[in-house]
Amino acid sequence: MISGRKSIPKAVKETLRSEVGFGCPIKGCGNPYLEYHHFDPPVNIMPHNEPKGMIALCAQHHKKADGGAYTVEQLHELKKDKTNAALVKGNLDWLRKDLLAVVGGNFYYETPRIITIDGIDLVSLKRDENGYLRLNINMLSLESKERIIIKDSSWENVGSPLDLRSPPQGKELEIKYTNGDFLYLRFVELESFEQAIGRYRTDIFESISFPITAVEVNMTIAGTNIELTPSTSTLGGIQITGCLSSNCGGGVMIEDSGFSWKQNPIWKRKGLVTEIEGSNLIKVNFKGR
Ligand SMILES: [Zn+2]
């Protein structure tokens, strides 16, 4: 790092990510693992963190930009370019055969269906043919808009988030929507039982062998009483904290929540459905299947 320049403020990073629609703006890229490039002026001329002279790029295109591949003029144009937003998707690496899921302040080990609401697996793990555990998240919403889907550790369908933070190391993923819907996940290596106690302030995982990788999941479904914070799961009228489900088929199951889930509406399935402007009717082409 160039001396004299302070680390980039969070708000500046957020602005730069949002400008490019949360994906690298170079033609055909759309990579969501973004870094931040200083170009006007370059930091070797003057250290700064002025968002006007900075752009979010993926690591590969950041290197190319450092090498001079794009003119200052081109970079100013690319800053305004959200066309790659539709390409934004990623993979959660961190494939492990053994995982401790820490979901809303509770612990799940060898428990594939972690939280199920109205028959939908909100958070679950599925073992693939090579024995690796793959994370699945169906983010519920009361808004009929797209919400992120994580299927077998690959994520897509992010819609139009307020912010999407996906640092290049791939340890974390955070997504916020304007109505307050929120998802955060992080992978953490727990080297020892003592380290786990230090992190989670409980010794409930005596039956688990360390080292182990933990995947921490927090979520808010706006307008409902469903919230998974780092310390507690609020699910309707109940609160659960610091419990361990080990070797259970299912963790928490809620039926008849009374909410009508509207995320990822059917008319988003392109080709099958035509939306009729100015009305609530949609026309479905069943022959298109
Ligand atoms: Zn790129």
User: Which percent bin holds the helix content?
Assistant: 10-25%
Major β-sheet annotation:
10 strands, mixed
Q: Which distinct ligands sit in these coordinates?
A: zinc ion
H/E series, N to C?
A: HEEHHEEEEEEEEEEEHEEEEEEEE
Percentage beta strand: 25-35%
Query: What best-fitting shape do the alpha-carbon axes yield?
Result: globular
Number of helices: 4
Structural class designation: mainly beta
Q: Cα distance, first to last residue?
A: 53 Å
Overall pLDDT level: 91
What does this structure look like?
This protein has helices spanning 10-19, 59-66, 72-79, 193-200, and strands at residues 34-38, 54-58, 90-91, 99-103, 106-109, 113-117, 120-127, 133-138, 149-151, 154-156, 163-165, 172-176, 182-190, 212-221, 226-228, 233-235, 238-240, 244-246, 250-254, 273-275, 282-284. Mean pLDDT is 91; it is low at 285-289. With 289 residues, it is mainly β. The chain has 2 domains: 10-91, no CATH class; 94-254, no CATH class. Zinc ion is lined by residues 24, 26, 29, 31, 57-58, 60-61.
Write the layout of secondary structure elements.
Blueprint: H1 10-19, E1 34-38, E2 54-58, H2 59-66, H3 72-79, E3 90-91, E4 99-103, E5 106-109, E6 113-117, E7 120-127, E8 133-138, E9 149-151, E10 154-156, E11 163-165, E12 172-176, E13 182-190, H4 193-200, E14 212-221, E15 226-228, E16 233-235, E17 238-240, E18 244-246, E19 250-254, E20 273-275, E21 282-284
Parallel strand pairs: 4-14, 5-18, 6-19
Antiparallel strand pairs: 1-2, 3-10, 4-5, 6-7, 7-8, 8-9, 9-10, 11-12, 12-13, 13-14, 14-15, 15-16, 16-17, 20-21
The protein binds zinc ion.
